[in-house]
Amino acid sequence: MAERILMNEYKTLAKEPWVNIELEGEDIFRWTVGLIVLNPDSLYYGGYFKASMKFPRNYPFSPPEFRFQRPLYHPNIYTDGKLCISILHAPGEDEMSGELASERWSPAQRVESVLISILSLLDDAEVSSPANVDAGVMLRKEPEKYQSIVRNNVEASKQDIPDGFVMPTHQTTTVKPVEKDDSDFWAESDVDDDVFGGSDSDEDLDVDDQDTGSDDDEEEETKRA
């Protein structure tokens, strides 16, 4: 099942201009990803941020691993390129971190939602719990110095643009938010609904109908009054 799901996601993302994906040795569980920042208002605009993704054999029930291959100075990126981001943390709530289950990985997530979350994280750093403390302090106290380092990172990232690859621009496309639709996801991947308890029950539908009827009655009473 994991292979089929990943292949579908790979084919979908291969059509997107804001990301460039290659399989490592034709292994569907290992991807080389190039994230391209197309937002001209972003400090990271024009960058080509190369990273590796490794998927577990039980995907999508466990999250993938993500690591930038080139050093990137950012409060939420460790010096080894790994990320501190909730969406890549194991499913369920974590009392130690205070993260809610809804903020962490779930089997309904997709690679696309992970990559867009990472792009958003670049310009919207969480400095209250930094993975790179020095970067967090500099962002708050010396923002101009921080921006200068980031601009150098962006220029250095362009060395990783593959030969023959044409970088897109914001004039041709923009990254659109992902609207998560769990039903479409599981329909595409042929996962049995019984794994997650099936669809909405008839009882839930009856409650909705009752609520609607109640509103209509109140409206009629108001007109008669």
Task: Walk me through this protein's architecture.
This is Ubiquitin-conjugating enzyme E2 2. One of its GO terms (molecular function) is transferase activity. Belongs to the ubiquitin-conjugating enzyme family. It holds the Pfam family UQ_con. With 225 residues, the chain is α+β, with helices and mostly antiparallel strands. It has one domain: Ubiquitin Conjugating Enzyme (Roll). It is 36% helix and 12% strand. It is built from 6 helices and 4 strands; from the N terminus they run H-E-E-E-E-H-H-H-H-H. The chain has helices at residues 2-13, 111-123, 133-141, 143-157, 182-189, 202-224; strands spanning 19-24, 27-36, 48-54, 65-68. Strand 1 and strand 2 (27-36) form a beta hairpin. The protein is globular and about 50 Å long.
What's the gist of this structure?
With about 220 residues, the chain is of the alpha+beta class.
Number of discrete helical segments: 6
Question: What is the CATH class?
Answer: Alpha Beta
**Backbone structural class:** alpha+beta
The major beta sheet can be summarized as: 4 strands, antiparallel
CATH architecture level-2 label: Roll
The whole-number mean of residue pLDDT values reads 80
Which homologous superfamily in CATH is the superfamily?
Ubiquitin Conjugating Enzyme
Low-confidence stretches: 172-225
Computed CA radius of gyration, to the nearest angstrom = 22 Å
Strand order of the largest sheet: 1-2-3-4
Protein name: Ubiquitin-conjugating enzyme E2 2
Keywords: ATP-binding, Nucleotide-binding, Transferase, Ubl conjugation pathway
Family: Belongs to the ubiquitin-conjugating enzyme family.
GO molecular function: ATP binding; transferase activity
